Amino acid sequence: MDTARQLIPLPRSIAPAPGRWRAPATWLVAAGEADGRVRRAATRWLGRCRLVSGDAPAHLRLRRTPVAGLPTGMEAELAAEAYQLRIAADGVEITAAADVGLFRGLTTLAQLLTLEPRSLACATITDWPGLAVRNSHLTLGNGFQPPFARLKEFVAQLAWFKVSSFTIEYDDAFSWEKYPFLARPSALTKPQARELAQWAEEHFIEVVPLLDSLGHQDHVLHHPQLAHLRELPDNPAELCPSNPAGLAFIQDLWSEVLEIHPRARWVNITGDECFRLGRFCPRCGARAAKGELAALYCEHYLPLVRWMLERGHRPMLWHDMLAKHPDSLQDFPREAALIYWNYWGVDSDAHQVALGSHGYVWPGEIAREPQRYRDLMERWWVHPTQAGAFRPWAELYALKERGFTMLAASGGSCMERTFPFPGFRGRIDNPRSLARTLADMGGTGLVHTFWSDNSGALSAWHSLAAAGDYTWHPRAEDTTGFLARFGRLFHGADGNAFAAAANAFDAACYPPEAPGFPALRPPRRTAAAARALTRLRRGARRNREALDLAAPAVDFLRMEETVRDACQAQVRALLGPGEDRPVPLDSAFNGELLHLNPLDGGSRLDIPAGSHRSHGVRLVVAPGPRNVVATLGERNPGGHRQVRIAVEAACDQLCFFHTAGYVRRGQELPTRSPGRTAPANASRCWARCRSVTGTRAPRPCRPRCRPGRATSTPTTRCRCACT
């Protein structure tokens, strides 16, 4: 049954049978004991329906009975969602042990009829979920709140892909009664919030409310009435954990939210990215000086966890702060679930181990990690079968071993670029890889996030559909295969043509970054992106507005190429017409370029040994035995690294490329001297040495000149690297 192999999620078992069944103009539906939500879904998705009694002739029968053929030992929560859909020449039957299973079966039937409205090939589909929590997240902050009607459409579409829960991040989009000044004008009213929760329940979707706590409090603490709760008096980013009024304030907010969601099984109390924890407040600073940051964090979150549990709600938290301070794990209640978030990695990047706010670790550098972190991770870092490789998503295993219920979080937003469209491949591969790992290691589920960034959630339906697909049926699949199914089902396009156009769009707008030097003139990609976008939009018969959001990405790419050309022209003019001189960079500058932000793990350069040209610059890189070195960054394994660059020939100018800043006159380059800290802007670089020609060229600088010291010509100042 080829049509069933185009569904999202892809069913577990499809057993074809001879013959075809033709859809009626008016459906006779025998709903049996199914509740009203299932009956209304049949009417909503099948068109003209008439409910009949259980023993009357019917085109569709819904029966509450256990499904045969399920894996042995399946958890009750998963078995409740299992269903069997039998399409025969004499009619259609859906069986399931619970109403939610009947509902899932109806979504499959509705998808089949979307692809083939008039008749269906006979077959039996037996299907069940792989992960219990299949969650989609949406923040309403920063002006990305959809109109209320579109928000309801969003929830209904999630049900189409068998999503089981929906995290709504209220922030200032909630009409607070005790603190009315927190709500922005477009905030949901409480009746709207109740209606949205009921609408989600109508589609068998649980709502998971989310409120920030210690971190990400700008939308709250910028109000003067709440300035006394800040960790830093002039910075509204974080709540002070030493002030008991802060926890009371958070509980006040939660009390109002829980009035709307009294039956919520899960609540998200966040706990992530408390960057300023203990650094500014005098009380917190004193605790930090004693090494009690973990205890300080727990003193805020432990009471909040217990407060939620007492009210019948199970809290979940983002993992990064507990991973950064693993000594706090032993005191944290195991009733709380941890969400390991990583929005970039895939299983092919086994050498990258994302550690939340901790940074990155490379093979061979485990010994440099803090002992408390090694105690948590060392057992799980190394791949069990691939010598010298890292295990993908190792923190999931490490935290689960500590007894926590583990979820993971993937990303659907524009993570790689500032474009208003997130691209296809990276946003599909990320949830697929995490879902496979969760299924293999016994995880509970996946939260697929969409943060307010450069685009709206409408641009992420391919990613949302992928998260629904792979959390229901975790497996390996080529991304092109998923794109073909998505293009046909969601957009009504020729699947193969859609996948080819999507891959072409990604190749133009999101090309993989080649290691080493940037090309002097990278290939122009605007025309290719525009052609791919035209093919995507031309082939779509449904939901074209989602593809319309990709159009500005082409304009952004055009602007990016224009700016790059202008910048390169400026660089070439600055360097002047002098003679190229090679600068040898020793093996300490061979590495992998990952981050340029010094506070995010430093930067590494992947420069193969040999001769290179970039921006008209010729460089010679000496071979080295290892790929090294982050020179700056407070989280670098082993602390700061400083490397001296030796210029072989006399020069009057030393220019740096791919830096996090510029070396200013009077600053020293980094050196290997122990105990010295390199200047923040003299970071990871490769160099060009060039003599400037002209009517009056400066004389060569002495090898050991001092900053600002005059050369043998009194009117010429030294302009070598040390200045």
Secondary structure elements and pairings:
Blueprint: E1 13-22, E2 27-30, H1 36-46, E3 49-52, E4 60-64, H2 76-81, E5 83-88, E6 91-96, H3 99-115, E7 119-127, E8 133-139, H4 148-160, E9 165-169, H5 190-202, E10 206-210, H6 218-221, E11 230-232, E12 235-239, H7 244-260, E13 266-270, H8 282-289, H9 293-310, E14 314-318, H10 320-324, E15 337-341, H11 371-381, H12 394-401, E16 405-411, H13 425-441, E17 445-449, H14 461-472, H15 479-491, H16 495-509, H17 526-539, H18 544-548, H19 551-575, E18 579-581, E19 584-585, E20 610-614, E21 617-621, E22 654-657, E23 686-691
Parallel strand pairs: 2-3, 2-4, 4-6, 8-9, 8-17, 9-10, 13-14, 14-15, 15-16, 16-17, 19-21
Antiparallel strand pairs: 1-7, 5-6, 5-7, 11-12, 18-23, 20-21, 22-23
Helix pairs in contact: 1-3, 4-5, 11-12, 13-14, 15-16, 16-17, 17-19
